[in-house]
Amino acid sequence: MSKFICLMLCIIGASSYVRANPTLRDLLIPISQECFKEFPRDSVDVVNKAAETGDAELLDPCFSGCVFKKAGFINDKGEYDTNSALINLRKLVTDDEQYAGLAAATNLCTSVQDTVTDGEAGCERGARLSACLLQQRDYISI
């Protein structure tokens, strides 16, 4: 009986921890609202499906660019700015362990800075960043 109670307390504690630490998707959904209006093909359901499957191609590249610009990951020149991304992540994430994981994933995605053809638009980099972060979904909560 005491093992059962211990198990139940562990489950309750773990579920509280999960609820207390929102996923990257949860953190970005409020920021995404304007982008949903601009790119109506994408919705919370599409974002959830992309996060669950790891398929960034479900998302409109310019929707991804829009979200990451609003979140401060991509600057006005359409460039991925890791310093700004980390500063803005810190504002959104209060848990140090969760922040460390997201920061590591953010730093792993510097390859999105490679040459793009859309310049300041940020669509290609947004798509690349979505794909890169989704590849990290086994290590961070997306």
Using brief descriptors, characterize the structure shown.
7 helices; 142 residues; globular; Recoverin, domain 1
Walk me through the topology:
Layout: H1 2-20, H2 24-38, H3 44-53, H4 61-70, H5 82-92, H6 96-108, H7 123-135
Helix pairs in contact: 2-4, 4-7, 5-6
Q: Could you please describe the fold and organization of this structure?
A:
The protein is built from 7 helices and no strands. With 142 residues, it is mainly α. It has a single domain, classed as Pheromone/general odorant binding protein domain (Recoverin, domain 1, Orthogonal Bundle). It is globular. The relative contact order is 0.15. The model is unreliable at 1-19 (pLDDT under 50).
> From the coordinates shown, what is the CATH architecture?
Orthogonal Bundle
Distance N terminus to C terminus?
36 Å
The CATH superfamily turns out to be Pheromone/general odorant binding protein domain
Which overall shape is indicated by the principal axes computed on the Cα atoms? globular
User: Averaged pLDDT, please?
Assistant: 82
Q: List low-confidence stretches.
A: 1-19
Number of strands: 0
| Helix content estimate | 55-70%
> Describe the biggest sheet?
none
Question: What is this entry, summarized?
Answer:
This protein has 142 residues and is mainly α. The protein contains 7 helices and no strands. The longest helix has 19 residues, at 2-20.
